[in-house]
Amino acid sequence: MEAQKVDMFLMMNSKFFEGHQLGHVREKLSDLDDSKSTLVQSLQFKDPTTVLIISLLAGGLGIDRFYIGDTGLGIAKLLTCGGLGIWSIIDWFLIMGAAREKNFETFQQSIY
């Protein structure tokens, strides 16, 4: 992939990844051929800010975990009413990082 396209991708999508992951993303994008680059550019990532808002409003029901794809944790959170509220409060601080990790996993799966 051309350096200009890599820079554009990172500029548009850097909020979806952790800071320490951006170097790896840049490296993998630079090595991609054009057929894979089109696929990567069409990926839809979960916005960490949206996930945080969902967590604040309906985190006790596990909807935040269902949204990012953690179905098992979403069911557990739903059945325990957010761990009696404690798990919900903890997720307010952790859910944005979990969303970025899921985005990174989605990115890695798409390039292989």
Key attributes of the depicted protein:
112 residues; single chain; mainly alpha
What are the low-pLDDT stretches, counting only 5+ consecutive residues below 50? none
Structural category is mainly alpha
Biggest beta sheet attributes: none
- The H/E string reads HHHHHHHH
User: Helical proportion?
Assistant: over 70%
What is the 3D shape?
elongated
| Helix count, DSSP H or I runs of 4 or more residues | 8
Summed up, the domain count is 1
The separation of the N and C termini measures 15 Å
* Rg estimate, integer Å: 16 Å
Q: Summarize model confidence as the mean pLDDT.
A: 92
Number of strands: 0
Strand content: under 5%
Transmembrane segments: 49-68, 74-95
Main location: membrane
Keywords: Glycoprotein, Membrane, Signal, Transmembrane, Transmembrane helix
Protein name: TM2 domain-containing protein
